What does this fold into?
Amino acid sequence: MEFYQRLVEAARNRLADLEMESGIEESKVDAIRSKLFGALRTYYQERDSLRVLVNFRKAFIERLLAEGEEAAEATTGDYQREGICDLLVVFPKSAGGTPGCRDSRDGYPTFHRT
It folds into this structure.
């Protein structure tokens, strides 16, 4: 019986050591992820804004095909009214452009870079 108690105690000690090592490694991974996100932040923002824009254009085209031109124009108004345009302001000068979202000649909200 004493033999098994020593085995259980050794296993508990090993588990505690492994949990401590795991916590240290998780902390290191979190620190690296934080640095990576900081370095790639503008690209993440640009990616997310492009997703919003693609989703808007998809909704516009689907509505245009299903309901006609007037309904599709309402999609543009909905887009602007809900302030989604604010989400598209992600092009700082360091990323090669000027922040902004304006209507292009075709009426679609779009990115403008300088």
